[in-house]
Amino acid sequence: MKERTLLVIVLLTVALLAAGFWVAQNVNLMPAEASTRAALVDQLFRAMLGLAAVIFLLVEGLLLYSVLRFRRPRGDEGDAVPVHGNRELEIVWTLIPALIVVVIGFYSFRVLAASEMREADPIVVNVDSRQFSWSFEYPAEGVTSTDLHLPLGRQARFLITSTDVIHSFWVPEFRVKRDATPGQIAELLVTPSRLGTYPVRCAELCGVGHASMGLTSQVFVESEADFQAWLEAQAAFPSDPIAAGRALFGRNGCSACHALADAGAIGIIGPGLDALADPASAHASMHGADLRTYVEQSIVDPSAVVVEGFSDGLMPKDFGTRIPANELAILVDYLIAHK
Amino acid sequence: MTATASTTTAPAWRRYFGWSTDHKVIGVQYLVTSFFFFLVGGAMAGMIRTQLLAPDSTLVSAEAYNRLTTNHGSVMLFLWILPVLAGLGNYLIPLQIGARDMAFPRLNALSFWLLVPSGLLMLASFFVGAAEAGWTAYVPLSVAGPDGQTLWAISVVLLGTSSMMGSINFVTTIFTMRTAGMTFWRMPLFTWSMLATSILVLTATPVLTAGLVLIAMDRLVGTLFFSVPAGGDPILWQNLFWFYSHPAVYIMVLPAMGAVSEIFPVFSRKPVFGYKMIAFSSLAISLLGLTVWAHHMFTSGMDPRLRVPYMISTMIIAVPTGVKIFSWLATIWGGKLRLDTPMLFALGFISMFLIGGITGVFLAAIPIDLHVHDTYFVVAHLHFVLFGGSVSGAYAALYYWYPKITGRRLDERLGKVHFAANFIGTNLAYLPMFLAGLLGMPRRVVNYDPRFTELNQLASLGAFLLAASVLPFLYNVIVSWVSGPKAGDNPWRAKTLEWKTSSPPPAYNFDTPPVVTEGPYDYGEAAQGSLAPSPSAAGD
Amino acid sequence: MTSHNITHEDEFRAGRELSLDHRKLGMWLFLASEVMFFGGLIGTFLHYKATIPSPESAELDTVLVGINTFVLITSSLMVVLGLDSIRRGSRRGLLTYLGLTALLGVVFLGGQGYEFVSLYGHGIALTSSVFGSSFFTLTGFHGLHVLIGVAWALLTLGKALRGTYSAQDHVGVEAFGLYWHFVDIVWIVLFTIIYLI
């Protein structure tokens, strides 16, 4: 090979590799890193991005160069010099990609193994998914909530399932998701590493409320002290009936589908509930003294009366058994009298 | 060189609307029908991207949106890409191997006509509540869905049957009807790619059929295959579905790769570099493609140990794919490039498929997939390989073989406008989606977090540009067919057999069966025994 | 008018060089896809067999269905003998053995029907459990294939009566034979995984 050609190839290779390194160090396309596994994933991602940049620039560069350099000269209708193949070159461009693939595969395996190592004394959280809300249960602490609170630095062991269709529990800042499959429990290990509030998103199409499942839940990574304080607050039941009703409204995931200004809920899958507490509304006049009965029935037997414009079959039918009778009474009172 | 036959006119247009066993008529029927569904699927995409212009738009209800995304995917995959490539195969295989028709002409006609009820059923599903569980139809959601889901399942079974019938024809024809001198190593690469594709069709499609039968039975008859209370396993559906649907993506890209393999030598005036390796790589992709399906299930809760073998097999496919890309680059390197529209689309194919392929390796890496699975990162990846890849390849093929099929030339300026709008539109539509997915936007969402607004608006802009880009193409195709300049037998001066007969070809393709004495891409060689008339041509 | 001066044999010259008859190759390819279809259903059955206890299996009548299996295997033998007959030019032999094939196929279907009814009597039906769903779907699709086979046998018999086949050309009989053997082999697999293990 001519010296000049060799020099060009060496220089181009160096330039490409430099570009790759620069991309790997400086290009950040991910959201905040909030778990220990996120840091590992991002390292892998940046390395692959650098490599991808090299390959991309190489191939697109060769393509562009060829298009510019080898255009048919005007008036030249002849054939080009025939080259059918080159064994050495073909071996090289088979082996080098194979090698790259082996390296990436191995590195990915290492990251995966490191991400899923068990730590001592994890905090166990049962993640129950349903159309269209999340429910996080802390069995050891006896707390259930629609928000996910986690102590910083302590591994969370999620046990994820669904009661109806497949959902998928995803926290982008944690860099991991796991499907919630009915009839099965999937384990997920995450150690939060950054204080903050992060969204939860459903990542498996689950019906009309798929996009709004994230509206009702957030992840709060907080200090151990704040976490304990939260646990205690959850366990204690507010004595004020309005606050208690509001808490029950949140805990049972009502805001996934209903709007209620007092509770800050903006769900649109089911009818808005603000009118229930308004004595001048149609509900009051329609039901009069039976408003209480109507609201309770709407919770435990959703199919009995379906409001015009909304679909039957979406509201869970098991609230009657899920909510203890005394709490149901508090909730109903709240809905008709919270103003 | 065989003396060219007298110019023949295309069959009377009426023939295209009825039952014909002529593979050329059937091929055109496939092409036109599938392009109609491309427009239908595209209209659905237009509605989706309009909805996504704003993060909280109420233009489309959540229910309607799920139906749009489900059917956009299903129509594009089952009623556009699969049949348009099958149609190209149908038209070209007998011509490329020097045969007068397919091995089973009546089966061939039937395989086209199955498209009609299949398409009608999918369209009809909108009248009874269209399928809304995604083109992936995961259970239990799809078992409980509206009546249109059943029509959807039947539609896909019909399409799969059509596909399998076509492949039986392709394989049999290629093995038993090659003309004298057409050894396997002298077969054009497009025909090779159809052979590799057919292996996948015959192996994988029936498994999807089985799965669809199970869903249909659960819905119609009350069987308990996917009833969780009875012990049914939703993951079983995922395995049955992806066993087909992963190889399906290779079914959708291999013929497009075959087409661009044909175009590069012709428009570089150079032989294909590494012909045998390209042929082998098609087979390798085909066979490897059957071993990777569970990479769609890394987040499903599948046994963690089983994930790694699938990661490995998936990454390995990058190797034969790379072989193709490098061989194509080496083909054009040092050539005398003519940048006519077929060549532009073929070059666009490489540049955009590269992005799709590279991001596929990202997805194969399990730790990365656990983050980006079921997000817009995947939507971007799939559109780069299927739109930037397969559709570009299909366009390249259509521009390249249009003169042969119709006997007319397409307008080059309109072609270049189409290419530019397509190339820019594709990149603008799908590059922002990678970012949206990485930052946290899931798939199949009617509304989204406002932080993704600008990315979505850029993507929608690109999509509208793509919609507009179809117009010059349609205009070009229709007007040129009626009044374009005559093409002659071999306007591109290519060497594969289809160019050795008239444009369009006569009823039985060749006046006398060709005898082959050279390879299909021997440019630059002194003409030594090129095509000679059959020694036994003793007159009619 | 342009004519094509390729005779039928010339068309398939490449196939002859590879010793491949296109009609038989087509049949092999079709059967390959059918194997994969049954593979999907068999995979389903085995998956649930491994993951859900099925007390219903105790009601399966292995002896009866074992005899039925023997009937089906014998019918395959009849096909072999029929093919052998026509290879020697004996149209009468072909007719006899095709008739026996169809007859034994019908007997098999009868036996399957009896087993189905008996299971139904024990409360095991298509919709009664996952086992019921997978058992009846798998054996039902197989039975459907046998039924189509019987019809095909009779069609072939009808063609044989009209003298369609000879010692030199009986590809249609071979194609039928391939299908029938496939149906038989699938049954042997089914019998093994459902009744024996």
Question: What does this protein structure show overall?
Answer:
The complex is a heterotrimer of chains A (339), B (540) and C (197). With 339 residues, chain A is an alpha+beta fold. Chain A has helices at 3-26, 36-69, 87-115, 224-235, 241-251, 282-287, 291-300, 319-322, 325-337, and strands at 123-130, 133-138, 143-145, 148-151, 156-162, 167-171, 176-180, 186-190, 196-199, 201-202, 218-222, 259-260, 265-266. In chain A, the strands form 4 sheets. A 5-stranded mixed sheet of chain A has the order 3-2-1-5-8. Chain A has a 3-stranded mixed sheet with strand order 4-11-9. Chain A is elongated, with a radius of gyration of 29 Å. Chain B has one domain: Cytochrome C Oxidase, Chain A. Chain C has helices at 8-11, 13-17, 22-51, 62-87, 91-121, 130-161, 171-196. Chain C is elongated. Chain C has a single domain, classed as Four Helix Bundle (Hemerythrin (Met), subunit A) (Up-down Bundle).
CATH class bucket of chain B = Mainly Alpha
N-to-C series of helices and strands of chain A? HHHEEEEEEEEEEEHHEEHHHH
Work out the helix count of chain A: 9
Estimate percent helicity of chain B. Answer: 55-70%
Derived from helix and strand composition plus strand pairing, the structural class of chain A reads alpha+beta
Order of strands across the biggest sheet of chain A? Answer: 3-2-1-5-8
- Uncertain runs of chain B are 1-7, 527-540
Main pleated-sheet profile of chain B: none
Number of strands of chain B: 0
Largest sheet of chain A, if any?
Answer: 5 strands, mixed
CATH superfamily of the largest domain in chain A: Cupredoxins -  blue copper proteins
What percent of residues of chain A adopt helix (DSSP H or I)? 40-55%
Radius of gyration of chain A: 29 Å
The overall strand count of chain A is: 13
| Overall pLDDT metric of chain A | 91
CATH architecture descriptor of the largest domain in chain A? Sandwich
In whole angstroms, the N-to-C terminal distance of chain A is 87 Å
- Strand percentage of chain B, roughly? under 5%
**C-alpha termini separation of chain B:** 20 Å
